[in-house]
Every structure is written in C-alpha cells, then in structure tokens.
Amino acid sequence: MEKRAAYRDETYWARPIPGFGDPAARIVVLGLAPAAHGANRTGRVFTGDRSGDWLFRAMHRAGLANQPDSVGADDGLELTDAWVTAAVKCAPPANKPTTAERDACAPYLVEEFELLTDARVVVCLGAFGYQAATSHFGVRPRPKFGHGVEVPVAGGPTLVCSFHPSQQNTFTKRLTEPMLDAVFSRAVELAG
C-alpha cells in the first residue's frame, strides 16, 4: 500500500491489524477496516478513534466489555463473549476499502471464523461489513442491508446489521446510541 503524503513520516501507517477479544466469543463484531490514526496507530481495531468510542460504550452497556473506552492496546480493555475484527486488515486510502482489498483479506477472515467456533451472532457494522459476512457465509440471495436487519445463516450464525458508528453516521444522527444499544441487546439475546 502506498503511503499518503500527509502520513509519510508515520511509522505505523499501513500495518495490518488483527482482530481481538474473547476466543470463546459467541458474538463477533465485523467492521470495515482499521482507521489510519485509530487502529493503525494503536495496533488494535476500533481503538483510539471516535467510531471505537461509540462501539466500546455500547459493548460496555451490553456487558461485553469491562470498560466503556479504549485508547491503546494496553489500556486494560477486555471483552467477554465478544470478538472484534474488520473485513480489511490495513487502513485503506481515503478511508474507503475496496472490494479488491476485502477479497484480498478474506483468507484472514476465514481463519478468524475457523478459530471462533462458538460464534452465534455476527454484528455487521455497515454495508461493507455486511457484504463481507454474507460473502464469507455464502448467503444467496443477500437480503438488503438496513439497520436492525437480521439474517439467519443456515448452519451458521445470525447476522445482525447496524449502521457503522462512523462520524458520518453519528454526527448526522443516522445512528444514535439507543439504536446501537438495541443492536447489541439483540445480539446478546440471540447469542443466548
């Protein structure tokens, strides 16, 4: 990946970021890609950026995280019954992952799901995360993405869709904290 000029002196730019959490997780949170100055900087997905602030507050309220925030990989955050990952493992240029990048990272997602044998629910953050999940689980035809949409996978987990907690969605109130809380409450209920 080519470094953008604004970040050419940063040592953390474009390194791959793995998923993290409870290896016995029944709930997997699937996002798009690491944020350039969030996960790419901290080394942990959804950590150190505003999307992560929203995500971890909601996960904390749902009883899936021991604290409501995460600023660095060594900040004490622990997930219970949850695993957080991204479809694309490196920060994409212009913060827009491409289908080609998703497909190139698909083998890593396959490995993650092979290890997460207890997964019963996948919370898909955004249409891109949903597309990665439906592709991975072979969902055909793919129901239309929408906040709160649930898609049971034959022999697999239930996909629960949420608008991504990006600033574009949170600042415009397309996604509110009660909406995100409802998704995680439902995920916990389905994971039973």
Q: What would you say this structure looks like, in words?
A:
The protein is an alpha/beta fold and 192 residues long. The protein has a single domain (25-191), classed as Uracil-DNA glycosylase-like domain (Uracil-DNA Glycosylase, subunit E). Helix content is 33%, strand content 13%. It is globular and about 45 Å long. The termini are far apart. The model has no long low-confidence stretch (mean pLDDT 88).
What is the compact description of this entry?
The chain is of the alpha/beta class. The protein has helices at 39-42, 50-61, 99-115, 126-137, 167-170, 177-191; strands at 20-21, 27-31, 82-86, 121-125, 150-152, 158-162. The longest helix is centred in the middle third of the chain and has 17 residues, at 99-115.
**Based on CA inertia axes, which overall geometry fits?**
globular
How would you name the CATH homologous superfamily?
Uracil-DNA glycosylase-like domain
Would you identify the regions where 5 or more consecutive residues have pLDDT less than 50?
Answer: none
Q: CATH top level?
A: Alpha Beta
Q: In what order do the strands lie side by side in the largest sheet?
A: 1-3-2-4-6-5
* Overall pLDDT confidence: 88
DSSP helical segment count: 6
N-to-C series of helices and strands: EEHHEHEHEEHH
Q: What is the CATH topology assignment?
A: Uracil-DNA Glycosylase, subunit E
- The overall strand count is 6
The residue fraction in helices comes out at 25-40%
Supply the number of structural domains: 1
Main sheet specs: 6 strands, mixed
Q: Which structural class is indicated by helix and strand composition?
A: alpha/beta
Q: Which value, in Å, is the CA radius of gyration?
A: 15 Å
Strand content: 5-15%
Q: What is the first-to-last residue Cα distance?
A: 41 Å
Corresponding CATH architecture: 3-Layer(aba) Sandwich
